[in-house]
Amino acid sequence: MHYENNWTSIFIAERLKLSAFFCLEYITVYDIIEEERKEGNMDLKRLNISEKTLTALNKKHIFTVKDFLEFFPRKAIRYGLPVDIQQATENCAIIGRQVSVQKKRMATGKTYLVFYFKGSVDYKVVLFNNVFLLNMYLSFSGKDVVVCGEQKYDEYGYSIINVTGIYLANQYQPHVHTIYGSLKDADENELKKMRENFMLMQPEIVEPHIVAGFMPYRIALQTLHEPQNKEAEQEAKKRILLNDLLYFNLSLKSNMVETPRNTLLKYNQWSLTQSFIKSLPFSLTSGQCGQAAVLNELFINARNGIRNNILLQGDVGCGKTIVAAAMMFYSAENGYQSVLMAPKEILARQHYEEILEYANRFGLTCVFLHSKLLKKERDEILKRIASGEIHFIIGTHSCISNDVKYHNLGTVITDEEHLFGVEQKELLVKKARDGVHSISMSATPIPRTMANVLYGQGKEIKLITQKPAGRLPIITKASSDHNEVFNLIENQVKNGHQCYVVCPAIDDNENTDIVSIEQMYKMYNQHFTPLGIGVGVVNGKMKSADTTRIISSFADVNDHSCDILLSTTVIEVGVNIPSATVMVVEQANRFGLATLHQLRGRVGRSSYQSYCYLIAEETDNERLQTMVATNDGFKIAEADLRQRGTGDLIGQNQSGINKFVEEMLDNPELFQQAAKLAEECIKKNIGNFLVAEYKEHEELEELYKDKKKKKKEGTNKWA
Fold first, then answer.
1. How deeply is 289 buried, as exposed, middle or buried, from its count of CB atoms within 10 A (0-12, 13-18, 19+)?
2. DSSP string, 403-419
3. Which helix (H) or strand (E) segment is 472 a member of?
4. Predicted confidence band of residue 637 (pLDDT cuts 50, 70, 90)
5. Sign of the four-CA dihedral 179, 182, 183, 189
6. Strand, helix or coil at 485?
7. Where are the alpha helices (DSSP H) in 395-516?
């Protein structure tokens, strides 16, 4: 049989051995070649492992051979030459003459062994495991014996605790004892046997010439399971980390959504766009990181036939939507449609209402595409989009539905793009014209290093850091005093302003001390209703129509049925009410920095002085103090990264790569090496087995989650 190279033949031979060892059903060599090429790693379920051990492994998210071999010891204890018990330190090999050993029984019926030793002083050892080895231990009596463990001295004298081994002195060897994380109900002997056999048959998972200069994979595994010295451990960890970063690079490069580069779009007209910009009741922010500079570059590129492909990062309230609207106007007057897609309906509707007002003013057409449209209404909108009658399409995921046919789509804008999956972004691009201009907007500041990784070098990153003229910094305070907050709210409402109050949960939970909206509503309503100040509530469980009605009432300064709006983080993005000047976050210590910053961004959207109160019992919380210290979203993003890793910075649909992003940020030089190796792999179409190893884990992880979810739903059903 012809093999592609020696690496492949070694891999197949070793997998055949593994199959034979675990008594798998008979499979031909050809079948194994084809199967392993498709599947890569080996699912532990296919091996002859006890159900009890398999369940214990799955609970630790160990599903494959690779997962199992990379479940490394959490601790390694080095035992050297034996010493007398009085010379022993924390973890030692202690030598003495074994006098006797006795088997005893506890009141519960559990048996244990008690050893009596004589050294420079008398001491004893109590052993609760390996009781079945009593006969062997009896044969040690009268001989020199080495016990590995910790010396203890108390009012009862000397003893040895945390025993890891008992040996005849003439058979003892200095060694390293490894301690693994708890795998409840797993058979330790079975795990040890699995580890030994898997290790012998584990092939290199990356073509050797790609990882030349790094420790071979199998050696790295053996080194970390049986560590001998710190230097070798570091090299082994580096190799395992390289696998992660190489996979991360390969995955990112395969997932990058690239819009077509061959541009055919012609932008010759821009008088309408100029008129639109001049009609705005404010001036565009200037400076290198202002709206005017970003738009100027977009316009010049479009005019010269250069495709715009940018990530537009701007803090909350910096005016990204105006930049998007201006580019949409530029496309419209040159004969192209534009689509702006947002991940949440409340945010999409906010964009629609703002851009619709601009469109009406200049005789352009704008529609809102969302899932709650009636069929007749939706069909009419789709017909008008397909005919080219509609210039601006604003919506949610409905913008990428199969039945949406664009006439001449030239500009694609996604807001909070990190909340969309790769497939969703690809679908939108495929619906567009060749050479489509692509703008991704993010109000969640992402450090530039991370943004380059997540979006790729092909996407240019533009920053808007200037706030519109007249905006005042939001005064932020961490407090535990509701009286202070209530006085501020009362004064602000009397001056024609409104107040947000955000709670961490909708309902009460007896297992936590989280304050629910229900509890907060009672407190706020009891205090403010007698003062003629109305309190309203919105949350994620409410119908869209009810949410819209209450927010509309809140936005109307003359409607005092809702001067204070209580909500969960449903208002984190998409609610733009310039007259709202107070944001109160209850139990603020329960929110991440990114969320707190987004919530604070709901106020301070006008020339009025605004306030953000972070209510918590302990106000010296590090996150709260960061919020108090700065209004700069990029500084907050960096602090968030330092304090708790990537977290919300990379969004819901990319949360699975948090581990890799954090490894990248901690190891930038190794990441760059991995990036170069990934390019070589892509050019030569290699590294596929490495990707398959990781992908199989991800697929099995998803199946496991689905199984747990269904089991939980079934339990709740009959509860």
1. middle
2. T---SSEEEEEEETGGG
3. none
4. confident
5. positive
6. helix
7. 422-430, 448-455, 482-494
Within its chain, how far is the Cα of 521 from the centroid?
32
Whose tokens are 């390019």? That residue is 679
Residue 652: predicted pLDDT: 40
Closest-CA residue to 608 (of 486, 443, 473, 488): 473
Number of other residues whose CB lies within 10 A of the CB of residue 85 = 23
Residue 488, number of CB atoms within 10 A of its CB: 18
> Which phi-psi region, left, alpha or beta, contains residue 164 (left: φ > 0; alpha: ψ -120 to 50)?
alpha
Helix, strand, or coil (residue 435):
coil
What is the token pair recorded at 650? Answer: 């990379």
- The residue ranges of DSSP E strands in 128-254, in sequence order, are 144-154, 157-168, 175-179
- Of the candidate ranges 73-77, 187-191, 289-293, the one whose mean pLDDT is the lowest: 187-191
Q: CA–CA separation, 217 vs 403, rounded Å?
A: 49
In degrees and rounded to multiples of 5, residue 81 shows phi and psi of: -70, 145
Residues 6+ apart with CB under 8 A from 339: 392, 393, 394, 395, 399, 406, 409, 411, 412, 413, 428
What ranges in 304-338 are assigned the alpha helix state H? 320-333
Task: With beta carbons less than 8 A apart as the criterion, state whether 96 and 154 touch.
Answer: no
Residue 610 contacts residue 475 (beta carbons within 8 Å) = yes
pLDDT on residue 508: 61
Q: How far apart are CA 385 and CA 40, in angstroms?
A: 45
- The encoded tokens of residue 170 equal 């003439």
pLDDT at res. 27: 35
498 beta partners: 580
8 Å CB contact between 159 and 173: no
What's the pLDDT at 573?
A: 52
The edge-to-edge listing of strands for the beta sheet with 535-538 is 475-479, 611-615, 580-585, 498-502, 564-567, 535-538
Distance CA 658, CA 646 (A): 6
Q: Count of H helices and E strands in the chain?
A: 24, 20
Tokens of 545: 């129509």
E strand or H helix at 640, and its extent? helix 633-644
CA dihedral of 652, 457, 40, 218, whole degrees rounded to 10: -110
**Per-residue pLDDT at 455:** 59
Look-up of token digits 């909340």:
419
The label of the residue with tokens 């006439």 reads 407
What CA–CA distance (Å, rounded) separates 139 from 117?
Answer: 14
Question: What sections of 71-178 are H helices per DSSP?
Answer: 134-138
Q: How much is the pLDDT for 40?
A: 40
Structure tokens at 525: 């309503």
Question: Both tokens of residue 708?
Answer: 């747990």
Q: Is the dihedral of CA 366, 372, 376, 378 positive or negative?
A: positive
Give SS3 for 438: strand
User: Are 603 and 610 in contact, with CB atoms under 8 Å apart?
Assistant: yes
Token code pair at residue 701: 């992880």
Q: Give how far Cα 279 sits from Cα of 44, 273, 274, 276, 318, Å.
A: 66, 10, 9, 5, 19
What angle is formed at CA 642 by the lines to CA 636 and CA 645, rounded to 5 degrees?
Answer: 100
Measured distance CA(302)–CA(298) in Å, rounded: 6
Containing 499, the helix (H) or strand (E) segment is: strand 498-502
The distance in angstroms from the start CA to the end CA of the chain is 59
Residue position matching structure tokens 């202002």: 290
